[in-house]
Amino acid sequence: MTADVVVIGSGLVGACCAYELATAGLTVTVVDRGSLTSGTTASGEGNILVSDKGPGAELELARLSLARWAELDAELDDDMEFDPKGGVVVAVGDAEADGLRAFAAAQREVGITAEEVAGDALWELEPHLARDLAMGVHYPQDAQVQPVLASAALLRRARELGATVVPHAEVTAIGLAGDGRVASVTTSRGTFPTRWVVNACGPWSGEVSRLVGVDLPIAPRRGHILVTEPCEPLVHHKVYDAGYVGTLTADTDPGAVEVSTVVEATRAGTILLGSSREFVGYDRHSDGEVVRRIAQRAARLFPVLAGVRLMRTYVGFRPWLPDHLPAIGEDPDVPGFVQASGHEGAGIGLAPGTGVLVRDLITGRPPGLDPSPFRPDRPGLRAPAGIARG
Amino acid sequence: MAEPVEPADHSPGSLRIEGASDPARLTRQPAITFTFDGREVVGHPGESIAAALLAAGIRQLRSTRVDDRPRGLFCAIGTCFDCLVRVDGGRPVRACLTPVQPGVDLAPGDLAEGRP
Prior knowledge:
Chain A has helices at residues 12-23, 57-75, 94-109, 122-125, 147-160, 205-210, 243-249, 288-301, 347-363, and strands at residues 3-8, 28-31, 47-48, 87-91, 115-118, 135-139, 143-144, 164-166, 171-176, 182-187, 190-199, 219-228, 238-241, 258-265, 271-277, 310-320, 327-330, 337-341. Chain A is α/β, with parallel strands linked by helices. Chain A folds into two domains: 3-77 and 147-218 and 323-374, FAD/NAD(P)-binding domain; 87-140 and 219-320, D-Amino Acid Oxidase, subunit A, domain 2 (D-Amino Acid Oxidase, Chain A, domain 2). In chain A, helix 1 runs parallel beside helix 5 (147-160), helix 1 (12-23) packs parallel to helix 9 and helix 2 crosses helix 9 (347-363). Chain A is globular. Chain B is mainly β.
């Protein structure tokens, strides 16, 4: 049987694509070379943020996604710990405060709720925040989700709608028809004839692209997360420092480790501390120096954390593209080959909107959002020298 | 969802290996007493809180804050943080790593839910 679509990758982006396509009535097969949803999706925080995005295409995709997240939470039977808890961005000093104020003002102009909070009023939102912070901005639209639960819920529902999900099936070839259109996906567990292929392999999307001769300049950007012991409720929002936004889009020194502070509690009572960004290929060893820096910065924002024990740390790999926008759309040289990757650290938040765009493309519906900024052949997708592509 | 475990048997000493039947021939210092959740428990100096409570047949050390499910000694080496108890009303500590002291007042390491 020929599937309408083979989705490669069962992380949250692949799961959202599969769910939207199956809901639209298409025949969908999802393949993953490993266990389901075991890659980047399984090693993040679960951020659904508008707060870290300035006006532009990514913010619009975030808004589309945020609206879809709330719908998905209602549509799906399974609990995925979706929590519209809101975010609080804090500025430590006056220089950071000036930058954060200007950033928030630009966001308000395009309709994002960004409420400035004086430094001596931050404790009303977060009682354990340090009392000497310059100011903060409250973003009530920010939310959190448990990404693996969300992927599992989406894949389960897609299967109920007729989708086939095949784990441990590594893609070895993508067959093309005489006219150059994709025709099949060959894996270690068999060949699946298809009319469309969606490449949702996150940082590994470059390998899959090369199978059809496409050079997607994607690289793994490693991050660390620290997990504390379960605690009484100490942290109530997603709290991060204003420097975090800077590390998202800064011109990248390939040799540098960028550390900024993100603090949030999970439903189980643990607190997740991030974050770092560095290019070291797929090295899975935790770096003790990076862990120490993250812990120190978190305790700077929340002094109470100095008395809380770490339970474990983990690393994950963000799919980085040089212009910090995801690649979503059909490759112009390979009809039927659709990119859905490169969301870097924002993939959890942006996955539902990505699924909607991919569905609209494949079903020929008018897109819910102008997809042109995400074109996989845009000029911005040129890799700077020196990035470990992995 | 798994069924909750049976309520713990709180009878003191129910699992403790004593005297001639002890293959390790442990020499214990004289017994001490402490309380867990209001009950008096007998232990020995040098035992972890988890060991003393397990020997007393107490398996459930706390409940999860979301679904109130039982948690007790799991990894027993300080990694999993499942065996949290409070000592004299302090912050939760790992029972598997914390030596028991005479006269301490132990309570389940339950964590409050919600937002203050």
